[in-house]
Design goal:
The protein has 15 helices and 12 strands. The protein is α/β, with parallel strands linked by helices. It folds into 2 domains: 153 residues, Glycogen Phosphorylase B (Rossmann fold, 3-Layer(aba) Sandwich), CATH 3.40.50; 190 residues, Glycogen Phosphorylase B (Rossmann fold), CATH 3.40.50.2000. The strands form 2 sheets. A 6-stranded parallel β-sheet has the order 3-2-1-4-5-6, with helices on both faces. A 6-stranded parallel β-sheet has the order 9-8-7-10-11-12, with helices on both faces. Strand 4, helix 5 and strand 5 form a beta-alpha-beta unit. Helix 2 packs parallel to helix 6 and helix 8 packs across helix 11. It is globular, with a radius of gyration of 21 Å.
Length: 354
């Protein structure tokens, strides 16, 4: 039997399918499981996975539509028995693509916030989206038609398979800079797509947090993400106690995350990268749903405000919007205090020491 996984969104969403992938292959070892990605970083994650037979990459965002269609039809000729849209994939384009990719059984979700022209009906098997259910479990639902019902307690951790050579290279890079200090990772940025720049906690609070951790914990701050302006601002304030750690290669960056003893991040792909590597992480959440996105089965603390209106963001192509205006706009992230994040860092570090 042949199964195609369509992991068309970003790193975080792709990682939250990895427990389902492991179940798929360990329950039915004779399956051929292939995967399609449209981001190079996602392709990197899965090309090293022992559970994937073949990884396809189609650069939908940058190449011509004719070239993309040709590559899609080439995949269709492989005649997959199942094709699965990784959760969340609440876009018309993803459902159309699944239709063109496979003549077999097409699996997707029935979303809470949707309409007819999302073309969900093109997927013959649709599992209902369940509010407040973790994305990992929503993804496990998608393989039930193939492997049957999976009890939640049997769902494994997320995984990233970093080749030993890359892992050692990252470890060496960190140890040469950190020396006898405590390596702590920071991701102060976020994606900007769909207005998600508003996931970001105040950069000045991040700077003050880093100063305190350097003083109290003898920390060395490793700065992650592609947001050069934010990282340069933090580095200029911390001087010799910090270094920009991210590179253009995801696996290289992940190998450096792996050496961190603590990580602090907004709700971004790095939060889930930490979970997949079992790196303790403090996650700062605004309008996104922490119940669906907390670091799965790994050491963590969540910092958020329990506002009546939050979380308000749901899986949809629509950008994030706030009901409040002016100074109160996105107050769910703006009003999170330095003390609350610092207390979570201290608490998690103490738990790890004990």
């Amino acid at each position: 039997m042949k199964v195609l996984i369509n992991a068309l969104s970003g790193i975080g969403d792709a990682l939250m399918f990895t427990p389902a992938l492991k179940i798929l292959k360990t329950r039915q070892e004779d399956l051929q499981v292939d995967l399609l990605a449209m981001f190079e970083s996602v392709k990197q994650i899965f090309c090293y996975s022992p559970y994937i037979n073949k990884t396809y990459f189609i650069d939908f965002l940058h190449q011509s539509k004719i070239k993309s269609l040709k590559e899609v039809l080439d995949i269709r000729r492989e005649k997959y028995d199942y094709s699965i849209n990784v959760y969340p994939s609440n876009r018309t384009e993803y459902n159309l693509l699944n239709f063109f990719l496979s003549k077999g059984k097409r699996i997707g979700n029935k979303y809470i916030h949707t309409h007819f022209f999302r073309f969900e009906f093109l997927n013959q098997i649709r599992y209902p989206e369940i509010n407040n259910r973790h994305n990992v479990l929503q993804n496990v639902d998608l393989i039930k038609d193939i492997v049957g019902e999976i009890p939640e307690e049997e769902v494994p951790n997320m995984e990233i398979f970093i080749p030993e050579e890359i892992k050692q290279k990252g470890k060496n890079w960190v140890s040469q800079r950190v020396k006898d200090k405590l390596p702590i990772g920071i991701h102060a940025g976020s994606a900007t797509l769909k207005n998600h720049i508003n996931k970001r906690w105040d950069i000045n609070k991040y700077i003050e947090l880093c100063r305190i951790l350097v003083k109290e914990e003898n920390a060395f701050i490793l700065l992650f993400g592609s947001e050069k302006d934010l990282n340069e601002k933090i580095k200029s304030e911390l001087k010799e106690n910090s270094e920009i750690a991210s590179t253009g290669d995801f696996m290289d960056s992940a190998s450096r995350v792996h050496s961190c003893k603590l990580f602090i991040s907004n709700d971004t792909a790095f939060l889930h990268t930490c979970a997949a590597l079992n790196v303790p992480v403090v996650g700062i959440f605004g309008y996104t749903n922490y119940r669906e996105l907390y670091p799965w089965k790994s050491p963590h603390k969540i910092v958020r405000l329990d506002l009546e209106c939050s979380p308000c963001f749901y899986n949809s192509p629509k950008p994030a919007q706030c009901k409040w205006k002016g100074i109160d706009e996105f107050k769910c992230i703006k009003l999170i205090t330095l003390d609350s994040v610092l207390e979570s860092c201290r608490s998690l570090l103490n738990e790890l020491k004990n």
